[in-house]
Amino acid sequence: MAIGDLKSKQGVEALNNYLQDRSYIEGYQPTQADVAVFDGLGKSPDATTPHVLRWYKHIKSYGNDEKKKLPGDKKVPAAFGSAGGAAPAPAAKKDDDDDLDLFGSDDEEDAEAARIREERLKAYSEKKSKKPTLIAKSSIVLDVKPWDDETNMQEMEAKVRTIQMDGLVWGASKLVPVGYGIKKLQIMCVVEDEKVSVDLLTEEIQAFEDFVQSVDIAAFNKI
Q1: Domain 137-222, second-level architecture
Q2: Which of 18, 88, 100, 187 is spaced 20 to 30 A from 118 at the CA atom?
């Protein structure tokens, strides 16, 4: 735009748009181009063009002697945006971005990070699937008490061992005196916790009611 345009409303609005993302007319510091445009305006803009008003007050803060010392030629650019500025023109910015490939780099980094993450997750899942599952087991010692001293303990033990469950393994046993000639059967077993209910197991043993008076848990240990 020419100096005459700065006297018109359209010219000031165009300048306001130009200064929206710039601090000065050219470059990163005040120059004679700022002084030329400042003089071309002739008067302070109003609040309808806030970017011009900001810039105008800043240039106005310089004294006459300070303005004369500013670098550059005192002339208004033929067209705003053709000269340098605090931020390059859109086309120049696009070219710079294309050269640096900033956004492209971010996309590539994101894609690479996602690929690495997926590979690690897949490897972890495969490793976990091949790892043997830990089976929780318990070692239990049961006290199986007969009705009296006339109960056939060998037959009672045989009855107990007939109980078969998935996850149940019977172990060693012995007869332990409890008094008055009566002995109890103390028998060990190992159970898989998820498959065998201890309550159900004791109920199964007590079902031999002709032999068994009661069942107690003498010891219970996680393996």
Answers
A1: 2-Layer Sandwich (3.30)
A2: 100
